[in-house]
Amino acid sequence: MQAINDKDLGTPARTGEPTVTLEVNGREVAVPAGTSILRAAALADVMIPKLCASDSLEPFGSCRLCLVQIEGRNGFPASCTTPVEPGMKVHTQSEKLTGLRRGVMELYMSDHPLDPFECKAGGKCELHEMARVVGLEEVRYDHHGRNHLALTVDESNPYFSFDPSRCILCSRCVRACDEIQGTFALTIEGRGFNSLMSPGEHQPYIDSECVSCGACVQACPTDALMEKTLLDKGRADRAVVTTCGYCGVGCSFKAEMRGDEVVRMVPNKDGLPNHGHSCVKGRFAWGYATHPDRVTKPRIRTRISDPWREVSWDEALRFAAAEFKRVQEKYGRDSVGGITSSRCTNEEAYLVQKLVRAAFGNNNVDTCARVCHSPTGYGLKTAFGTPAGTQDFDSVNEADVILVIGANPTEGHPVFSSIMKRRLRAGAKLIVADPRRIELVRMPHVEADYFLQLTPGTNVALFNALAHAIVTEGLANDQFVGERCDAKEYAIWRDFIVKPENSPEAVAKVTGVPAHQIRGAARLYAQGPNSAIYYGLGVTEHSQGSTAVLAMANLAMLTGNLGRAGVGVNPLRGQNNVQGSNDVGSFPHELTGYRHVSDAKVRAEFAAAWRVEISAEPGLRIPNMFDAALDGSFMGLYIEGEDIAQSDPNSQHVAKALGAMEIVVVQDIFMNETAKYAHVFLPGSSFLEKDGTFTNAERRISRVRKVLPPLAGKEDWQVTCDLSRALGYPMDYAHPAEIMDEIARLTPTFAGVSYANLDRVGSLQWPCNDAAPDGTTVMHVGTFVRGQGRFLPTGYVPTDERTSARYPLILTTGRILTQYNVGTQTRRTKNVVWHGEDRLEIHPHDAEQRGISEGDWVEIASRAGAVTLRAQLTERVQLGVVYTTFHHPESAANVVTTENSDWATNCPEYKVTAVQVKPTMRRPERLPAGQMPESVRPSAK
Amino acid sequence: MEIDRLVKMANEIGEFFAQSPDREVAITAITTHLRNFWEPRMRRAIVEYAHRDGAELKEIVRAAVLRLDPPAPLPA
């Protein structure tokens, strides 16, 4: 069922100028060529009855309700499948049309309850609405003949039910699955009266290939497919537009509310990142917000071995502030710091870094982007001048060649992957570079032209070989390079890249990718004409993560694939606000807008606004904080919305560092693993309980709107303000809008951003200022932000994490669709039905050598530690490589990851760990959500 | 700060910038990177190490580290 108050125009918009003028019931309307009569009529405020048509689906012409009459033509054509023509005169109402429509509706209702009280949607479904519209008051055919009314309801999906007796076979669900989601999980099975909509091959939903994106539920015009929350709670009375709190796609949603209760989350048709689509997490997995595990009262304790004591907000904040002051007095001003979170809003991240810089008086602030996309920031800023993706998501619709490397969009960024798959089905070419055979390599109606299955840790070698082939085969875009890039730097780089060691033939030995495949992919990418790179943590989380980002920038500049739609270098950000938390000054060396703290002019602006001097020295990054804690010089930490004990590498090292600190303040919605080392716990608020903004991977700033009162009584930004006040540095804001106003005043790229502007246009992509008042869709048009594009040599340096006789396999990690990061949120939802545990994927040959069978418990041991998982034998992974997800605490994947990190940013090398795998009788501890095994928890202060 | 770890990090930074054919450019880039991204106690530790011994630092990295101004003492 569509969102409440949504207007559906019947068929999708067509691009182009409105050059075709026609009349509908005497009203003149002009629309682009190719537009349906149904849509043209809707644009002229003439609503034609319809059931199988929707403006999110291509016209189908099956329901026969949208019939019209056209002057000069015979018959009653379906308006959804009839395109407009100049001068057409269309009539949508006549006695004959009414009779035809009523007859059709009568047949539909002959196999469906006519009484609206029997409708599960309370008569508010489109079917009953259309029955009213066509004036159907009784049905001549009773239910005693053959019918479908006794069919069994499929309740297998945890979030929605399918009642086939209420299905009218309009195929909207099937088409939504095909056209919007691109999974092709649904079909109409059987013929004639025996036709039934069926997931998979007559399977229950839960056993089919359905990915629970909800597109079918939203498309259904009847009460056949309905959300269980809607069935339980009843129809909403209002809707609030907000932004999803999961991945970096940043989907726009309508939170449908009934009083103070969320009934359902419906993807917003007007949302520019997602255009009305969603995934199982954003659409359905929001129940964690009111989970009983939520902590709603502040807690304190003197020692972490003491029990927690619930206290008032005032006492908790005074205690925290006093401890921070005591530690600074004892160990020095630089002995404390803070960590912001990509799960929090821009305004919250801004306040935490402001607190650190102004109230603590140092720059020891960092953010969880440190462990994911910090190399993106370094690499893209160095090459182009701005540490952000170059395009908007819709740009992919104009790509001819798509290179996906180190990303698994169907699992990690599912809504964007649906847009990408649609483009691939339309004919774009695909290159996938990944150690693992991800779904995009071959799936319904999508197949990679090149699958470069490289050895983990060899991305840079592969990029260099691609560039080598392009240069030496004369495929470089010399005009672009000559006009847009630094000639001297390019000459140095060119001398480097043509060296024999960078040739595909030489690199094949390193990467494991045959030279002819590398050359073929290089030619395809170079000749686009529009080639776009999409990448993820499989690029950044390496010891050469920043080098790899620079190498991708080199490739894009070399082939002129920058500065227009359809091209670019595009990071797929893991969390909802990775981009935003970085933008607003969360890194220890940068103030907002990526301006270095050593810049006296910038510091002076902040000093004037904040009435305090800003340190000119870069602060500690997260891994440096841990090291400094262990040497006794960093003894206090304020952590907002981040579970570093679970998410950061080498858990034992992190635990020791946290245990060494004298004051750890955790602000979160759940008592997470890090909180075990905390002296103060400040209850946080979920994305449904606060106002603010998130900035997604395409630099799009979108509003987050409060729909529920904060469970603990305060929104996160208020807590940070209160802590700062207790520290003696008052920060007074009446609303997050005022915080954004301050960010805009201090940040040239945000100068045009305000809540008023966001409310007016929906969302804005930065830079947004006088030069670009409506924001910036594509970066680096005409010139790079830094002026000339910068080529840098990107020599391949193998990681220190080498395989050996003792650790002969390489472990790499990834995500699964239904879970999110360390699972703090999604494990507290019904998503666990799809992924109850992490498993170790191992190639059958590697398994056989070790006597491992499917489902066996195995120990994965690295130089850092050992964990236990069950094995899954699959050829998705190559020989010598094993893979796991990291969503469950029992897996404790970071127990085995090492402290190797990116040379430029200290981003951990999560993606390459040498391990041995062997069968074991040991079983992991089964833990409540948010807890790690006791074995990795050292004693602490 | 654990000096072995800092030395490893500094050498990795050096390895990247040492690709420049111009030694002076490379040294300046290494120095700039350390100044821009390393917190003072990290710089202090590596500078002290370079002066004291520096044997585990690559030659070009040691040259770059020795150009770092000794950061001011820790503020009270």
Question: If you compute it from the alpha carbons, what radius of gyration of chain B comes out, rounded to the nearest whole angstrom?
Answer: 12 Å
| Termini separation of chain A | 54 Å
- Per DSSP E runs of 2 or more residues, the count of β-strands of chain B stands at 0
The main pleated sheet of chain B reads as: none
**What is the oligomer described by this structure?**
heterodimer
The amount of helix of chain B comes to 55-70%
Low-pLDDT residue spans of chain A: 935-941
* Average pLDDT, all residues of chain B: 92
Please report the total strand number of chain A as a whole number.
Answer: 36
Question: For the largest interface in this structure, which chains are involved and how many residues does each contribute?
Answer: A-B, 38 and 25 residues
Low-confidence stretches of chain B: none
The chain-level mean pLDDT of chain A equals 95
Count of individual domains of chain B? 1
Enumerate the strands of the largest sheet of chain A in spatial order, edge to edge or round the barrel. 13-12-27-26-25-14-15
C-alpha Rg of chain A (nearest Å): 29 Å
CATH architecture of the largest domain in chain A: 3-Layer(aba) Sandwich
CATH topology of the largest domain in chain A: Rossmann fold
Q: What does the overall shape of chain B look like?
A: globular
Structural class of chain A comes to: alpha/beta
The H/E string of chain B reads: HHHH
